[in-house]
Amino acid sequence: MESGPRPRWGRRIGWLLLIWALSVAGLGLLAWLLRLLMRAAGMTA
């Protein structure tokens, strides 16, 4: 008993890839901000 048409696999994979890409970009941004803060505090490598 289905309540309506199921979304296509293409849409599901598209959403999965979008969420993955946004999470990777968010982690990259966080790493960049931490690097800026560490550099501002004088912790250079």
Give an overview in words.
It is a single chain. The protein is mostly helical. The model has no long low-confidence stretch (mean pLDDT 89). It starts with 8 loop residues before the first helix and ends in a 5-residue tail after the last helix. The protein has one helix at residues 9-40. This is DUF2474 family protein. The chain crosses the membrane at residues 12-34.
Number of helices: 1
* Quaternary structure classification: single chain
User: Would you list the SSEs in sequence order as H and E?
Assistant: H
The main β sheet shows up as: none
Anisotropy-based shape: rod-shaped
Distance between the termini: 61 Å
Look at the structure and give the mean pLDDT.
89
For the CA atoms, what is the radius of gyration? 19 Å
Structural class: mainly alpha
The total beta strand count reads: 0
Low-confidence stretches: none
What is the helical fraction, as a range of percent?
over 70%
How much of the residues is beta strand, in percent? under 5%
Organism: Pseudoxanthomonas gei
Protein name: DUF2474 family protein
Keywords: Membrane, Transmembrane, Transmembrane helix
Descriptive keywords:
single chain, 45 residues, mainly alpha, 1 helix
Break the fold down into its secondary structure elements and pairings.
Layout: H1 9-40
Q: Can you describe this structure in just a few lines?
A:
It holds the Pfam family DUF2474. With 45 residues, this protein is mostly helical.
